[in-house]
Structure to design on (335 residues):
């Protein structure tokens, strides 16, 4: 096994590779003007000596910090965890380090966290969903590059990726309608979030295509968290309006709804069919396994990371984000 040299310096690398320290610096920073022979020699020596550039020195020399701010809404949510994994993968070979903060589902808190990141001289910013207005995000992009996931907007120094949430609501509801269900309850997400509103719009669109008017009495309000799904399902059951299926606007609320049905002795899917959105990792391991609409959350995270790197002038390939996909498992049945 080769000996490790954790304390190697740029001078040691230069001496062993037979080049000048400035040549090593150019190779480390990806600059042009280095012959192929010298570059290969420097890279081999860097690996041999386990050389790691000093981030502080590089920051002073290049004016960059090699750090990227990432704003999520809930660090405990599996929804954001999957996107964060994608961001980590997208940044993996770039040398950039993500600094992750939570906006706590609050617009003023979110803006405060972003200002804190900017003051710490991050090179760029990734915002996952959130409550900031489009105008606020465009304003932050005037300060430094911004990549946004979950928004449909454009502007200078800004990249955004939006997945059609109307289609998510449509796919879930149309699946139930195609299986003969005509009284479909809906557990809605928070009215302050565009994706929640669009999933409700997709629910209504699917009904219209089948010539059915959705029953407002079968709609219950949730907040995308498991507890709200449980409470909403209890309200639907207590209201007494009959239904044969439920579309929960995300998987987490579907989990809560499933618990409420279990406690009431209502069988899934024998008595009530159930569909969610997102395809969280746990959805395949529910009892029974949850039918859901898969969002490409990991790919969205990778897309945000590479989009930001491109805004920073890095030559990285664009990540393709696949479309939504209905995943049929065991919580739905044909009437």
């Amino acid at each position: 096994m080769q000996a490790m040299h954790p304390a190697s310096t740029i001078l040691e690398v230069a001496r062993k590779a037979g080049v000048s320290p400035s040549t090593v610096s150019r190779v480390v920073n990806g600059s042009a003007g280095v012959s192929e022979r010298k570059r290969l020699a420097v890279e081999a020596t860097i690996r041999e000596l386990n050389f790691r550039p000093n981030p502080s020195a590089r920051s002073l020399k290049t004016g960059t910090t090699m750090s990227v701010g990432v704003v999520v809404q809930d660090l405990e949510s599996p929804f954001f965890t999957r996107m964060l994994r994608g961001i980590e993968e997208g940044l993996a070979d770039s040398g950039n380090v993500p600094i992750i903060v939570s906006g706590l589902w609050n617009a003023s808190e979110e803006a405060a966290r972003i200002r804190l990141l900017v003051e710490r001289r991050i090179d760029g910013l990734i915002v996952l969903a959130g409550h900031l207005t489009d105008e606020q995000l465009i304003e932050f992009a005037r300060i430094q590059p911004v990549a946004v996931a979950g928004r449909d907007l454009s502007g200078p120094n800004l990249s955004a990726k939006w997945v059609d949430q109307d289609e998510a609501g449509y796919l879930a509801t149309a699946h139930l309608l195609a299986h003969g269900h005509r009284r479909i309850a809906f557990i809605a997400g928070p009215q302050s979030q565009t994706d929640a509103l669009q999933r409700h719009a997709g629910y209504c669109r699917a009904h219209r295509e089948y010539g059915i008017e959705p029953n407002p009495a079968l709609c219950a309000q949730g907040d995308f968290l498991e507890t709200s799904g449980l409470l909403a399902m209890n309200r639907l059951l207590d209201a007494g309006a009959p239904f044969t299926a439920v579309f929960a606007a995300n998987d987490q609320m579907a989990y809560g709804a499933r618990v409420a049905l279990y406690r009431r002795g209502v069988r899934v899917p024998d008595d009530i069919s159930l569909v969610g959105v997102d395809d969280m990792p746990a959805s395949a391991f529910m009892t029974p396994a949850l039918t859901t609409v898969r969002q490409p959350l990991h790919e969205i995270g990778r897309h945000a990371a590479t989009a930001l790197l491109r805004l920073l002038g890095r030559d990285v390939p664009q990540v393709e984000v696949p479309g939504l996909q209905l995943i049929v498992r065991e919580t739905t049945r044909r009437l």
Q: What stands out?
A: The radius of gyration is 25 Å. The domain at 67-163+297-322 is CATH 3.40.50.2300 (Rossmann fold). Confidence is low (pLDDT under 50) at residues 1-7.
